[in-house]
Structure formats: structure tokens, C-alpha cells
Design brief:
alpha/beta, seven-stranded mixed sheet, globular, binds zinc ion
Length: 352
Amino acid sequence: MLGVEITGTAQHEAWLRRELPPVEQLRTDLWSIPVPIPHGGLRYVSVYVLALEGGGLGLVDTGWQSNQAWEALTGGLTSIGADVTDVRGVLVTHMHFDHLGLAERVRQVSGAWVAMHPADAAIIGSPMLRDAPAAVAAEVEFLVSLGAPPDEAAADVGTPEQFARFSGMARPDRLLEDGDVADLPGWRMRARHTPGHTPGHLCFAEERTGLFFAGDHVLPRISPNISTTHQGDDDPLRDFLTSLTAVADTEPAEVLPAHEWRFRGLGERTEQLAAHHEHRLAELLSAVRSHPDSSAWQLAAYLTWSRPWEQYERRMRIFAVTETDAHLRLLATRGLVSQSGGAAPTYRLTAR
Ligand SMILES: [Zn+2]
């Protein structure tokens, strides 16, 4: 088995220096533009720019919705002798703000179409996303259903103002299902539906070059967040592991992820990610054994995290608890734990 080989060496070196990587030309008709993310550890999204046969550009993802990100995207396009008004179509790997955020602004100035999977389009189109107080209430209610005390859930979720930015996210003009080839002349971008990180996550396997646009599904260093949400899939971790297997069969010429750096060794990396989750599942199973009849909220505190659990709050705690819930649901699917039922279910080992 081949290892995971870093091919985006300039990206990796910039990462180690804690700098933004350069705009890179990857082929005669393909570039990557790093678009900064204002907070969090990811630092940037790599927007891929495809020159189309007959003129114009296609984009894979767009970046966080901010003026700084807009300047990075449009400045990057200028640096390769292009302009944002040249964009004809935008492929969105998934509905998260760092990928979809700028799509509306790109569409407004260029008239480009925006395409995504129907499952993410349904979330983006849900009335709740346009109604910040309702979205906040739903998320608080969801955390309470995982066992959170209502006051702590409300404190972690925050105020409706923090949700307002999501209401400007682009709804798609086009939908792409698994197996569809995107309408980007000169390219054979075949959509691969890879639910897990979001219900409608798409990767794109480019059949002319053998390149694989991985979105957040397979990243070289970190494991993408797999969490339950109030409007997501019932068992996202099961879906994610199935989606890993689904893309592991091909060994692309190069993997072009949405964060971090390009690499080779997709099969090996999918195995590492699956092993990471199996390890986490085993850890959680032993926590359920030691602390029977605990909720997801309680069990999260018994797992090992990158910092002491007492320091977790707000978004970080929500990620941790909903990730724990995703693992619990897969343990339940596998018949290893059973749920008490009720408004805030607790878990115990299944009697054998
Ligand atoms: Zn992302």
C-alpha cells in the first residue's frame, strides 16, 4: 500500500510557516486560489479555477463571505489574467459558509450558475435558514434533546444576530446528483455524492485528467467534522464511512482538497480516516460501559479531546457533543448500544 504523499508542497511549506499559500497554476487550464477564512484553524479554502473550452471559467467552491475573502478571490483571478466576470459556473462541494459563502456575490457580478446537491440545497432553501430566531431555537432544542441543560445550550448557541449571515447564502440554479457530469466545457467533472460532512456533500472526479476534487470529504491532515444536526441525516457517521469506501476504489492522479494541501494516496487516506473513527467508536463504547444511562451531552465529557473538557464551550462544545452523538448513533445502528427513548435519550450497552 502506498502512503499518503504531499504533492502541494508549496501549500504545506506555507502551512508550516503559518502563511497563506500562493496562487498556483496546476495545469495549463487549472489554478488554485487560497481564500482566507477569518477564524478557526482551517485558515483558507482552496478555490479551484478551471479555464473552459470556448472561454470563461468554472469554479469549485468560492470562499467565506467577507470583503477580505472577496478581495483574495478576485485578486487571485486578476493575478492569473482573468476576472470574476469571466465565471460561467460554480460547483459547490457543500453548503458550509467557507465554500458557498461568496457564491451569491460571484453570481451577482458574473451571472454564473451555482450548482450543488439537492440534499444541501434543501437545507439552504429551508425557511428556517432565513429566520434567525427560529434557527437558534431549533439548535437549542436539538442540544437539549442530546441532554444539554437549557441554559447552557442557549449560551453555547448564541444570539440570532450570529445566524443572520447565513440568510444571504446562494440557493442553487442547478442541482447535481451522484454520477452527473457538470456543464463545464472541456472538463469531465463527474459528481460523486459523498454524504457525511453534510447530507449533500459532493466530490468531483475529473475523468480527463484523473484529478479528484475532494471538498472536505477527504483532507490530508484533519478529519472532517461529522456531526448530527437538527436538519441533517439520521446516521451521518455511517454515511461518511460508506462515502469513504465509495471513493477509495479509484486512485486518482492527485487529490485536490478544499483545505490544507494536495496529495496522492486517496485509498490510504480513507483508511486512516476510517480507522480514526473506529478508534473513537471504541473509546465511546467503553465510556458507555463505564457510565451507563448517560446522554450524548454527558458522554462527550468522558472522551479525550484536544484540550481539557472543562475549557470547552460555545461552538467547540456543540461540535464535540454533536460529534459524540454521531458516534452514538452509529453504535446504536451496529446494535452495540441501546437508547432509552424519551425527550433526551440516554445510552447503555445492548444486553447480549
Ligand atoms: Zn470547509
